[in-house]
Structures are given as C-alpha cells and as structure tokens.
Amino acid sequence: MAVLPGVKERVRRLFYPAYESRMVKALPKNQMPRHIGVMLDGNRRWAKGVGGDSTHGYRAGAANIEPLLEWSEEVGVGVVTLWLLSTDNLNRPPEQLEGLLAVIGDAVEQLADQRRWRIHPVGALDLLPAALANRLKEAEESTRDVDGILVNVAVPYGGRREIADAVRSLLQEHAERGTSLEELAEVIDVDHIAGHLYTKGQPDPDLVIRTSGEQRLGGFLLWQSAQSEFYFCEAYWPDFRKVDFLRAIRAYAQRQRRYGA
C-alpha cells in the first residue's frame, strides 16, 4: 500500500531528529573537515517542480543557508564556502538575473545581521552592480570581528577567473617592487599564486558538496580543490536536509585521504 506524502512527512519529523542525533554522536571528531565548499545547485529545477518561478526557487534556496551553517557549527567546521553565483550566471536573461541578485543581497545581509558568522565575499565583485557589491562589502565589514564560522560568499565566482586574477595580482605586486619577469620566472611557485587567491590564508576545502545530482565541478574552487573529497547529492538544494549533510560528513570521514598518491 502506498504511503501518503503527508504521512511520510510526519514520520520523518518524528524519527529523523533522533536519527540525526545518533549520526552526529557517531562521527569521529578527529576526522571532521575544516573547510567545506558547497555548490547550492537545483533551485530553479526545484521551483519548476512545485509550480513556482525562478525567484521562488532562489528564495527557498536562500532559506536553507542558515541551517547549513548551523549544521556545520555542530560538527566543528571552521570555514564554509557557498557558491551562490557563477560568472557565467551573469549571462542569464536580465529579468531572471535581477531576481537572483536581489535574493543574494538579502540573504547575505540577513546572515550578517545575526552576527554569528564572519562574511567574506570571494569573486569578481567588479562585475556586479555597484549596489550589490557594496552590500557584500558592508556585510564583510560588519562581521569582521565576529567569532564564528568564516563564510566565503562566492559571488560572482569562476575558478578560471580567480586563477587569472591571482596571477595578475602577483605580477602587479612584483612590478611595483621592480622585479623583472626573468627574475620572477626563476622563483615563482604554487605558494606564490596561492597567496593571491580569493581564499588566501585559509585552509583548502577538505570536502566539496554538490546538490541536484550533477557530478562536475563546473569551475568551483579549481585551484583549492586539488586534494578535496567530493560528495554528490541527488536532492535539489532547497530540499537538502540535515540528514543529507550528515551523510556527506560521514562519507568524508570514512574515506582514506591519499592526497593524490
């Protein structure tokens, strides 16, 4: 006999908290990721499935960010990078992009207003409308002294663009010092470039999670994820639950990290 959706939901609400609590207690505390990257994918497809427009999907996805940060706090994660907008997304139709940018601005402001997490925008802010870029910078400034998880807000972000920006910054720095290209070529190494990335000074992500069933990076943290573990979840981002998160953490903890060996 088929189980009605409403009954399934009531059963989930009744039993899942206890199940999730057991999962948290069973996690090996010495094998938790320090930095998690999350690709919040599937908002538009989720909206289509429930009969809503794209903006409805974006707002449902934004509402799931705060729970994610709370789950991350619970297991001891120190850095979370959220990919909210890619540089390619800027090519979407204006009416669709306008709604997405408004949702991102509101979501980041709401996170900052709680003063629980440190907000750090990462991306090509110069490509954004000035008003949104200023909102992101203000969120960073207002949470600078907050003692909480560091939240990298990747808007608009592209891995190739980040690497190009890092190399450009490195060249400009050495040009100001009077270093010739020949001299720089003799000494440049990966640490020089890493020191100019958007996430400079942070640990690289130990775990990258992508929702919606897609199994590709799509340009997310290309440099930093060279040694990351990946977890792909079928759920669209607005439907991503604590149990999905804990399963990702459990899968990470069970893996033997070989760092390319």
What is the molecular shape?
globular
- Arrangement of strands in the largest sheet: 3-4-2-1-5-6
Order of SSEs: HEHHHEHEHEHHHEEH
Structural class: alpha/beta
N-to-C CA distance: 50 Å
Characterize the main sheet.
6 strands, parallel
Characterization of this structure:
The chain is an alpha/beta fold. It has a domain at 33-158 and 205-251: Decaprenyl diphosphate synthase-like (Undecaprenyl pyrophosphate synthetase, 3-Layer(aba) Sandwich), CATH 3.40.1180.10. The chain contains 10 helices and 6 strands. Strands 3-4-2-1-5-6 form a 6-stranded parallel beta sheet. α6 (130-142) links the parallel β3 and β4. α3 (54-63) packs parallel to α5 (94-114) and α5 (94-114) runs parallel beside α6 (130-142). The termini are far apart.
Write a concise keyword list for the protein shown above.
11% strand; alpha/beta; 10 helices; Undecaprenyl pyrophosphate synthetase; 261 residues
Short structural description:
With 261 residues, the chain is α/β, with parallel strands linked by helices.
List the helices and strands and how they pair.
Layout: H1 5-26, E1 35-39, H2 43-49, H3 54-63, H4 65-75, E2 79-83, H5 94-114, E3 118-122, H6 130-142, E4 150-154, H7 159-177, H8 181-187, H9 190-194, E5 207-210, E6 229-232, H10 242-254
Parallel strand pairs: 1-2, 1-5, 2-4, 3-4, 5-6
